[in-house]
Amino acid sequence: MTVPHSEQELLDRAKAIAGLKLAELAQSLKLNVPPDLKRDKGWVGTLIERALGADAGSKPEQDFPHLGIELKTIPINGEGYPLETTFVSLAPLIRNSGIDWRHSHLRAKLSKVLWIPVQGERSIPLGERYIGSPILWQPDPLQEAQLQRDWEELMDYIVLGKVGQIHAGIGEVLQLRPKGANRRARTKAVDERGRIIDALPLGFYLRKNFTARILQNFLQNR
DNA sequence: GACTGATCATAA
DNA sequence: TTATGATCAGTC
After folding, report:
1. 8 A C-beta contact, residue A90 and residue A179
2. Chain B: nucleotides under 7 Å from a protein CB?
């Protein structure tokens, strides 16, 4: 699949795959459906990326940089409520003094997101899960303010060397949680005296209450 | 049953 | 190791 040249083309493609089962889309792309997601946690996301023409690979950018759009699949239950939080980006634990909200990686990634809801209940076989209608979203002023508040609070912990005090309970719509291979994963951080230390890599995640509102607002406005 | 810490695969 | 894509699963 080639890259979409406009926002409309991307949206059209996303609408075209809405209503398909994952197995149907996978077959059209000649991809095998794994038995479940236990060892293929990113499979749905990668499948949708390919279907929409995002160039695969791991670049620290949006999925469609020329369109300024980030692609996110989100697993939902029968009521359309998110089953999982949404990973956004790794948290910068060092060399972070001076970055403010407006220049943050997180804000850039969330400036425009194409959400693809996908049935995610484990009782439904992976291939039988349906792809939902796409939602092209930009944070409204309230949402942006909430994100900024949480981001600033969480970044304060990091900048002040309080990485060890961080836990998932901090933040109203955002949270910091481990993001690594396992608990032994290590990256550099700073302690309260400014010394470099080894620490668990952390990532920013959107809480379900936040993404649920995005999905709900879409339903109301359609 | 929800939540938080832990985990899985792959590329560069 | 960092970055991409995320979901798993034990504990409360």
Report:
1. yes
2. 3-12
